[in-house]
Amino acid sequence: MRERDVGNRRVTPINQYLDGRIKSLILDLTVPHAGERLLDVGCGFGDNLRLFHQKGCTVTGLGSSEFRLDETRTKLENKGELRLGEPEDLPFSDNEFDLVTMVTSLEYIKRPVEAIAEAIRVCRGRMFIGVMNPYSILGVQGMLSTLFPFPPDANPRHFHIHSLSAMIRKCLPGVRIQWGSVVFLPWGWYRFASSLEEQIPVMKNPFGAFLGLSFSVTFSFITVQDAIRKPQVLNGKNPAQVVASQTSGTTSSFEGGTRNGP
Fold it and tell me: What is the pLDDT of residues 233-249, one digit of tens each?
């Protein structure tokens, strides 16, 4: 199998295999359904947009470079919407998307907690965050840039599962987080021992080069108003002697599931 160019990187058979492992983890943790609306924050060259478009989702990508978005638009063949904007101030309405993803983009965001809060604001279903793991074998080898090419002059920050979970729970206290990782072996081993990769447990394993976390966004408030009630007879009294109509005022309630403890 020959090498080929994708975006700004050269793809080898090892890259393709590991890319497949990463995409499998993303799909396992997001469980996309046809017809759902997806936003990918920091969409890059559109790899994840293509992945979810193939699953039947309506896809939207956000990027901060008009030049990169033009290139991505060509590669996507206009199969999705692309918007220019900043992750800390998303140009979308509340609860607009069923799925929101941030895949190896949080490392380049100046204010990551604000970006996560904004992603939660526009999400009405599920969120996924994927990051490079410097504590993996590839991280220790200094090989992360081989799997995740850094933009020129970039200085990505790195996160661990505990710091990521803390940032998420700062925005959604007590939320249940599912997580796992893939790409566990030294780079050179994938030439002859890729089957060993698939024997290593994925979920709640913090040692893979790619960490993925997903959680539900179900803590949005809704306003409920009851209709004006009809006159009632209370304790045998004539309706004229009681209040002819009652309004309940407005109440607020949580939509969705229950909140877990911190």
Answer: 444 444 344 333 433 34
* Helices 66-76, 47-54: inter-axial angle, 10-degree rounding: 30
- All residues at 6 or more sequence positions from 20 whose CB lies less than 8 Å from its CB, including other chains: none
Flag whether the pTM goes above 0.70: yes
In the predicted model, is pLDDT for residue 65 greater than 90? no
Distances, alpha carbon 40 to alpha carbons 67, 100, 104, 178, in Å:
17, 6, 11, 19
The CA-atom distances, in angstroms, between 134 and each of 158, 161, 208, 218, 244 are: 7, 11, 9, 31, 68
Query: Which structural domain, as residue segments, surrounds residue 14?
Result: 4-217
Q: Are residues 116 and 233 in the same domain?
A: no
- What CATH number is associated with residue 163? 3.40.50.150
Same domain flag for 76 and 185: yes
- How many residues make up the chain in this entry? 262
Instruction: Kindly state the average pLDDT of the residues 126-130.
Output: 98
pLDDT for 152: 66
Q: How many CA atoms lie within 13 A of 240 on its CB side?
A: 0
How many distinct structural domains can be found in the chain?
2
Asked if 229 and 173 sit in the same domain, the reply is no
Q: Are 90 and 105 in contact (CB under 8 A)?
A: no
Q: Which two tokens stand for residue 252?
A: 């607020």
Q: Is the dihedral of CA 132, 138, 139, 142 positive or negative?
A: negative
**Residue 41 Ramachandran class (φ > 0 left, ψ -120 to 50 alpha, else beta):** beta
